[in-house]
C-alpha cells in the first residue's frame, strides 16, 4: 500500500526505517530545478520531516545571503480533491532531513528567504507543542493567534540590520486570512479524529532543555495555551518577508506542570507518530482549500505585498552596500 510505505518516512526516534544515506540518495535522484510558481510552503517540524502521501517532483538546493536552509526544499504535487487542479507545494524540514538542527540553530532567515525566492507567499508551519492547559489534550490541534517570546536573543531574528533599519507591525503575529481557512478545514475533520482549538497563545522558549516546573506554571499564569521552541523567529521573519504565516500546533504532552508524567522526547515522538494520519488529512484539507480560486489573492499574500517599504526607517541613499545587496536578493526590484 503506497500510503503505508509513505508512513515509514515519518521520523522514528528509536528505529531508523530509512538511513540518512538512503534518504540523501532518494532526494538527489529528483530534479534540482522546478519550472513554475510555488506559492505555498509547508514547514515540517519534529516528527514531520517529510509530507507523506504527496508526489515529490523536485528537490531544490537554494543558497541565500543568510546561508543554507535547514534542508533541500522538496517540491510536491498535490492533486486537489475539489477541482482538477494540481498545485505545487514546497516542503522544508525545520530541523533538517535527519533532525540534526537544534531549535536555536535553525537557520530561520535562510529558510524564509529561500522559500520566498522560489515564489512562496504563504506558509503553513507545523509544530509539536506542549500543552499548558488541561483542556488541550495530547494529540489535539491548536491554531494559535498570539505569541509570547521567551527566546534569549541568541537567534538572528531580522533581515533589517547592518545599515538598514525597519520595523514591521506584529500585533497579530499570524495571518488571520490563512488562519480562517485552516480553522474551517480542521473543523471539517472533527468527529473524524481531529480535535481543534481555534485560538491560543503560544509561548516560544529557547530550549533545547524543557522548562522547569516553576517556568511552566508561570507561563500558565501568563495565559499561555501551548509551548514550543520554534515559532520565533520564523513568524517574525515571515512577516518581514511579506509572507502570510500560520502555525498548526499539535499537542504532544502536558509539559511538566500537570500531574501526569513530565514531557520526554519519547512522549513527543510517540504522539506525533500516533497522530500522523490526522496531520496528513489536516494538511491535505488545507491545501485543497487554499488551491480554490477564491483564495488566490490570499495565498499570494496580496494584502502584505509592498508593505515593507513603509517600515523602513533608513533613507535609501544611506543604506550600506552590503545590506542593500542582501535586501535586493530578498526583494528583487523593490528598492
Ligand atoms: C522534541 S520536543 C521539542 C521540539 O519539538 C518542537 O519542534 P517543532 O516546533 O519543530 O515541531 C519544539 O519546538 C522543539 O523544537
Ligand atoms: N513541553 C514542550 N516544551 C517545549 N517544546 C515542546 N515541543 C513539544 N513539547 C514541548
From TrEMBL:
Pfam families: PNP_UDP_1. It is an enzyme of class 2 (transferase). Keywords: Cytoplasm, Glycosyltransferase, Nucleus, Purine salvage, Transferase. It comes from the Eukaryota. Substrate binds at residues 229, 253-255. CDD domains: MTAP_SsMTAPII_like_MTIP. The record marks 211, 265 as: Important for substrate specificity. Pathway: Amino-acid biosynthesis; L-methionine biosynthesis via salvage pathway; S-methyl-5-thio-alpha-D-ribose 1-phosphate from S-methyl-5'-thioadenosine (phosphorylase route): step 1/1. Transmembrane segments: none annotated. NCBIfam families: MTAP. This is S-methyl-5'-thioadenosine phosphorylase. It comes from Penicillium atrosanguineum.
